[in-house]
Write a structure and sequence with these properties.
about 240 residues, alpha/beta, Endonuclease, Chain A, 2 domains, seven-stranded mixed beta sheet, 7 helices, about 50% helix, about 15% strand
Length: about 240
């Protein structure tokens, strides 16, 4: 019911409660790589046609041969169109940002968290949430019981968020001292949940999104949160 009210509030006001609204980021793909790949394939087809054309004896072309040639050409065009569609379809859920564009990466994260219902964040030390807007958004998610954070050790900010109502799963440096994974699960614990996994590649920051059931990466992320929860609970029991 809370999530339904939250969704209605967003639809009516266009913002998250009283905080500024973060517009949905434009889908960003590696268009350069996609364009180069498709152009090279098209040029290869043109080169093949240019190579075969001189071998054709136009005087011996019959209506049947012309029909077969036309059908083959249509099939090739259809296959190329399917290839274009497939490349674009498989690029869905992948966003590519320049490492030199931290504002876009930040805005993407804020939108994902703000409109993602209950979220679970796997992070190293929460260093990405240094600005006032990010911290205030996380505080509001904590107060609404919509925030889970998994990290190796507590930080001053994670302690504050826990006091505000967030669930903080501290799994300890003996289990994993320097986690390389960075991901955020939106709509955690609900149907339709999805995960955004970030990674660096040269001068690019790549974020890939996976829905529940669509890729093993989602289940791995979800199970990591469950492991962190269980380890954190046992640590607290041992300390009490």
């Amino acid at each position: 019911m809370k999530d339904l009210f939250h969704w209605i509030k967003i639809k009516i006001t266009g913002k998250l409660m009283s905080k500024p609204a973060w517009s949905r980021p434009k889908r960003s793909r590696d268009f350069m790589a996609l364009t180069v790949k498709l152009v090279l394939i098209l040029l290869s087809m043109v080169a093949l046609l240019a190579t075969l054309y001189p071998l054709i004896d136009e005087d011996k072309i019959t209506p049947t041969t012309a029909s077969v040639t036309s059908i083959v050409g249509v099939v090739l065009l259809f296959l190329y169109g399917f290839l274009v569609f497939f490349e674009i379809y498989t690029a869905e859920g992948k966003r590519v940002f320049k490492q030199s564009d931290p504002d876009s990466i930040r805005n993407y994260m804020l939108h994902w968290i703000a409109y993602g219902g209950r979220v679970a964040i796997w992070t190293r030390d929460m260093s990405w949430a240094k600005d006032a807007e990010s911290q205030e958004l996380l505080r509001e998610k904590a107060r609404n019981d919509e925030l889970i954070i998994c990290l190796p050790v507590h930080t001053p900010f994670s302690v504050e968020l826990e006091q505000a109502g967030a669930k903080i799963y501290v799994y300890g440096t003996e289990l994993l001292s320097e986690p390389g994974a960075r991901f955020t699960i939106a709509y955690y614990g609900r149907d339709g949940s999805k995960v955004a996994i970030g990674r660096a590649r040269a001068d690019q920051h790549i974020v890939e999104e996976f829905n529940s059931g669509s890729h093993p990466a989602f289940h791995l992320a979800h199970e990591l949160v469950q492991i962190a929860k269980n380890v954190s609970s046992r640590k607290k029991e041992a300390q009490s």
